[in-house]
Amino acid sequence: MSAQPVIRLAPPGRRGRRAPDPAPEVEIDAGPAATGSGPGPGAEAGMAPPIAAPMPPRARPRRVNWPAVISFALIVVLPVVVIGTYYYRHAADQFTATARFTLRETRARPLGFEAAEGAPERIGSGLATETVSHFTHVAASYLESRALLADLGAVLDVDAMFRRPEADFWARMPEGLPAEARFDYWRERVRVAVDGPSGIVSLQIRAFRPEDALALADAAVARAEALVNALSLRQKADAVARAEAEAAESERRLQASIAALSAFRDREGLLDPGQEGAETVRLLSQLTTERIRLESELRVLDRVVDGDAARARALRTRLASITGDIAQLRDQLGSGAAADASLAAALGRFEALEIRRRFAAKLYGLAQTRRINAEIDRARQSVFLNLFDPAQRPERSDHPRRAAFTLLAFLGLSAGWAILALIWASVADHRLDRRG
């Protein structure tokens, strides 16, 4: 049987900066030729080629990646220790006072002019309805504004409250801050939330002492209520001013219409052309009836006595007078040539002036009703701040959250260190690839 050499190669070394690996060890299995049981290695031309087999890997001790350990300690462990030490040994306790309130507005439906005219004592006694006030978001914005900080400064020493001796260096309000930085510091310690459907406003204020947090919360709610009441009163005052202006204008128009009507009566000498016309028609009817009676009586008398009799002359004189009165009354009713001076033309002008007077009187009554309702509404409070959850003196500190902030710092720094390590490993592999 021909010899079959077996070559076993040592495992390849790891890439890196180290000494070159020794030459591969080769083990040749000569087969039967080595024992003399067969022909020698060169005896036959058809001898099988040698078979190379790799050597088993050699165990090497694992080395510690000291750069990674040192960088993790510097980037993650040391800062977390510093942050934890600050929070647990130096950070001052802060207390939060919470208040919740709603703003409700009552609106009374004003009494109409007709009802007020029939029952003046019912003016301003319309049905009242309660709704969520539109001042809710105004109050919430005010609680987060610089105006509140300025108003609180008038009644409380806000700067001294945030510079208490127990406050730590990083949380204390620094000295000599400009207005913008001072307001930013205040905003970090105030939280305002508004629940849209219900209109509930939640206010949270943090301070270094429980009594300071309570005083700030109470003062802020009081200032918000004062602001809402002031805005409501201003709105009502504007409504009263507009109503009074409308009432004054309607009164001027009414006086002008009354003056025009009085001038017409003085010029025409008629108190009421309508009544004057009705009276004229009544007199004309009576005179016509009287003339017919006299004509009948005169015809009968002419047949009985002489026409020159005293009775006949008296009847003719009476008839002529009545006929003249009838003609004059007919001229007053417009049957004459001077139509402009007739009673019919005067009646038309009078009706136009009377319609204007009635319309002006109607507007004047409506304006006076609105003015009275506006004055009653101004005297009555319509916006109410319902403080259903007043601020209480906090008994336990809820800030800073030491464990949570330390854990967040550890997670954030660990994520940053991992990203830097991946970038460094990628750069190192790229350099090795370029050298190979």
TrEMBL record:
Keywords per UniProt: Coiled coil, Membrane, Transmembrane, Transmembrane helix
Highest rank taxon of the organism: Bacteria
Span list, region Disordered: 1-52
Coiled coil regions, renumbered to chain: 233-260, 284-332
InterPro entries membership: Bact_polysacc_biosynth/exp
Keyword Kinase attributed: no
UniProt keyword Membrane, yes or no: yes
Residues that span the membrane, as ranges: 64-88, 403-425
Protein name per the record: Capsule polysaccharide transporter
Organism of derivation: Paralimibaculum aggregatum
